[in-house]
Inverse folding.
């Protein structure tokens, strides 16, 4: 059952590739329907594991990645249904499939430690994961912006010009995704700091709590991520950095997110390996 979402995300990636090529209404509906099915199957798997462990399985790096994929799928589907634009699915669906490969191969059920039962911890994790999903959308939008810009600049109007929204629409979508992500990232960082300070006062038995500091790679890189997106939003307002510059900053920010979500979470952190 754990492989079903992965298979459906792969099928969705293929369906969006077909739609990107043909641009027919039938292929578009087929792509959306397949991705909806993948999200529903993923929801079922998360629900089954929630019953197994008695809480939403966001604990551990694998659980966090699975939740990130699920939230990104839902966020993209919401964007697609509100804008009636499916072109970005050809970039989003493969990312979903690649990221879902990790939780599909690691099917261990991780029990949540007692120290993580605080409601603040749930708000902290869910806020950060939703922020990361928003940043993933912003990155994909930024990539499509750069591809379209290069095509227009070269005066060679081809596949991207015919299939993507205008540069103005893409830039506005990028700003919206980054803004939403920044709000939830800020919330997640603040709530996480409050939760950690409360738990540190209650008990210092768990060495992972004692390891929480600005020098832990997981926390340090998360703050760098916050600074990058804060700079992007400030530069838009103060320096007029829109379009390509904003797109590149979105790509850099999401590269930092992926760094924190996969290699740092698995191999480098001492405080976030619950």
């Amino acid at each position: 059952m754990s492989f079903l979402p992965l298979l459906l995300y792969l099928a969705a990636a293929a369906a969006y590739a077909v739609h990107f090529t043909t641009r027919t209404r039938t292929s578009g509906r087929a792509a959306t329907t397949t991705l909806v099915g993948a999200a529903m199957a993923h929801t079922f798997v998360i629900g089954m594991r929630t019953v197994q462990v008695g809480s939403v399985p966001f604990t551990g790096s694998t659980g966090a990645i699975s939740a990130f994929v699920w939230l990104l799928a839902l966020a993209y589907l919401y964007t697609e249904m509100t804008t009636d634009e499916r072109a970005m699915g050809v970039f989003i669906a493969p990312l979903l499939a690649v990221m879902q490969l990790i939780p599909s191969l690691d099917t261990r059920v991780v029990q949540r430690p007692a120290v993580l039962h605080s409601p603040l911890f749930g708000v902290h994790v869910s806020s950060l994961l939703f922020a990361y999903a928003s940043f993933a959308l912003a990155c994909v939008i930024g990539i499509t912006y750069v591809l379209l810009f290069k095509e227009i600049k070269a005066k060679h109007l081809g596949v991207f010009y015919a299939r993507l929204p205008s540069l103005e629409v893409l830039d506005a979508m990028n700003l919206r995704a980054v803004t939403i992500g920044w709000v939830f990232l800020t919330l997640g960082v603040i709530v996480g700091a409050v939760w950690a300070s409360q738990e540190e006062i209650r008990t210092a038995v768990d060495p992972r709590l004692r390891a929480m500091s600005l020098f832990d790679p997981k926390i340090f890189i998360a703050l760098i991520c916050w600074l990058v997106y804060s700079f992007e939003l400030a530069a838009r307002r103060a320096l007029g950095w829109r379009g390509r510059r904003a797109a590149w900053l979105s790509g850099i920010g999401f590269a930092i997110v992926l760094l924190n979500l996969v290699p740092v979470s698995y191999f480098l952190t001492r405080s976030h390996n619950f």
Notes: The chain has two domains: 1-112, 114-274.
